[in-house]
Amino acid sequence: MEEEFHRIKRLPPYVFAEVNAMKAAARAAGEDIIDFGMGNPDQPTPAHIVEKLVEVARDGRTHRYSNSRGIPGLRRAHAAYYERRFNVQIDPESENIVTLGSKEGLANLAQAITMPGDMVLAPNPSYPIHPYGFIIAGANVHHIPIGPGFDFLAGLERGVKQAVPTPKALILNFPANPTAQVVDLDFYGQVIDFCRHHGIYVLSDLAYAEIYFDDPPPSILQIPGAKEIAIEFTSVSKTYNMPGWRIGFAAGNKRLIHALTRIKSYLDYGAFTPIQAAAAHALNGPQDCVDGIRALYRERRDVLVKGLAEAGWDIPPPPATMFAWAPLPAHFAELGSLEFSKLLLREAKVAVSPGIGFGEYGDGHVRIALVENTQRIRQAVRNIKQFFRSAGVVADGGDKQAAAS
Length: 405
Description:
By secondary structure, the protein is an alpha/beta fold.
């Protein structure tokens, strides 16, 4: 009875747990920790969405079981979003489904389409559910390096040649968590052509579709014929500051949507109907709130990047997402991302996510979530600058090591 359960054994130790434990202990001791760790929006959901929730919740008829696929009005609202935003037509009866957040949708699709021994291609570093949803389902994962210095398309071609058996699916995530990398339609076109040729499904996670600072990110479903092999996950979590509401969507290939629908029909009755109605109101209603959310993250990004550069830590400004993917300062590079994150927490009272937690190719970086206000960001910058000085890092606009370290 002491043997570990099979699926649990396939999961590695949770790297973020060490930093989280240190953070909790510091706060218990009364320390003020500036927390850039979890990508958890700190602003409230826009008032008109909350008001719709309250309005619908007052109707006792909405308190019964909901619809596992999502109420028809929400599926229609999601289809209308795709037509408005991407000029892509989605049939709300056969080509989309409401999920309990994009994370649940990905995990349940993994259960639906893979069996033990199947092979899946996943980027590395990546959001943990991308590979581990399939590992929990019993599949094997071949990792494709992504981020600065890597050619993902070349890695995809090598991965298909090296993987045995032939991969069943490829997971994509752009704008990417954690790297904030974006791609264009030409990239998606090459992926669709390649995967169609090799008989590989494409599972795209577009959760950060509306958190961008340059050009609006495209959808893979804009590629002609993409729906023959592709499905795409989106979410209201970051777009409307609704992470705790747990509403996401999958759209695209009818066979994959049907498989996900079948699995979900055994597992849940859908989200609470008033929440779904409020999500539909978010999609159909005024979108100036989204512009405001985007502007907030842009301001925080600019304050962070400028401040850290002045402190001696140059990081590239992310073109999208609510994250900055920060290379370890040269002075601390040999520590690796976990030890550097622990040191930053201990000495500067600033919490970040170690890149190794997103995969081995992330170990040279930390992820900084833009979930503190600008005043707190400036305080974090001051703390980091003071820490760098005490560690012998000269803050002169570059990351240099003092002569006497």
